[in-house]
C-alpha cells in the first residue's frame, strides 16, 4: 500500500525504495490507475545488482477529501530480470508480458489516505507535525527495509504483501488514535 497523509490544496510526495538483493539486473515499470492524479518519476528504470533505487510518487493537490477518506487508486509495480546491456531508455511495456519470455513479477499497491492530525494548540504545533508524519514514516519504514522487500523476482510479491498487511494495521492504528 502507498499511504498519503491527505492535506487539501497541497502536493504530497512519497518515495518507493526499491532494493535489489540479487546478482542480476532488474528492470521495473510503475503504472497507476489515475495517471492525471499522480506523477511517478522515474516511472521505469533498472536496479543494478545489490543496489537500491528510489522512485518519487507525487499526488497532485486535492481540492476536497473523498467521502470516508476512501481511495480506489492503485499502482502496479512490474519487474523483470534483464541483461546488463539493457539501458533505461530501452525499457518498454513488452518486456513485462508473458510473451517476452522474461520472468515477470507484478505487485499491486493500494493507495490509502491517512487523515492529517487534529488541530492542536500553538504549544503543541510541533507535535502535530511529527505525529502527522509518523504514519507515513512508519509505513515507509515497513516497506523500505531490505529484510522486508528483497527484489528477487520470485519472492517480491509475497514480501510486499506481508509488508502491506503490517503497514495497513499501522495506518488503522494511527487513524483510530487520531479519532480519540
Automatic annotation (TrEMBL):
GO terms for biological process: endoplasmic reticulum membrane organization; endoplasmic reticulum-plasma membrane tethering. It holds the Pfam family Motile_Sperm. It comes from Triticum turgidum subsp. durum. Gene3D superfamilies: Immunoglobulins (2.60.40.10). Coiled coil: none annotated. Signal peptide: none annotated. It comes from the Eukaryota. One of its GO terms (cellular component) is plasma membrane. This is MSP domain-containing protein. Residues 1-114 form the MSP domain. SUPFAM superfamilies: PapD-like (SSF49354). Residues 119-138, 151-160 have a biased composition (Polar residues).
Amino acid at each position: 500500500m502507498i499511504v498519503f497523509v491527505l492535506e487539501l490544496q497541497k502536493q504530497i510526495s512519497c518515495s518507493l525504495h526499491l532494493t535489489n538483493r540479487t546478482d542480476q539486473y532488474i528492470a521495473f515499470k510503475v503504472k497507476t490507475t489515475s495517471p492525471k492524479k499522480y506523477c511517478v518519476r522515474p516511472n521505469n528504470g533498472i536496479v543494478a545488482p545489490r543496489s537500491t533505487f528510489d522512485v518519487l510518487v507525487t499526488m497532485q493537490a486535492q481540492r476536497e477529501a473523498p467521502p470516508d477518506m476512501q481511495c480506489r487508486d492503485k499502482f502496479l509495480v512490474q519487474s523483470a530480470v534483464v541483461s546488463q546491456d539493457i539501458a533505461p531508455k530501452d525499457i518498454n511495456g513488452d518486456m513485462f508480458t508473458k510473451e517476452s519470455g522474461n520472468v515477470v513479477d507484478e505487485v499491486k499497491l493500494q493507495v490509502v489516505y491517512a487523515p492529517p492530525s487534529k488541530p492542536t494548540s500553538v504549544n503543541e504545533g510541533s507535535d502535530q507535525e511529527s505525529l502527522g508524519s509518523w504514519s507515513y514514516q512508519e509505513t515507509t519504514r515497513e516497506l523500505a527495509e531490505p529484510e522486508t522487500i528483497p527484489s528477487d523476482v520470485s519472492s517480491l510479491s509475497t514480501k510486499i504483501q506481508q509488508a502491506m498487511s503490517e503497514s495497513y494495521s499501522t495506518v488503522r492504528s494511527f487513524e483510530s488514535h487520531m479519532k480519540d
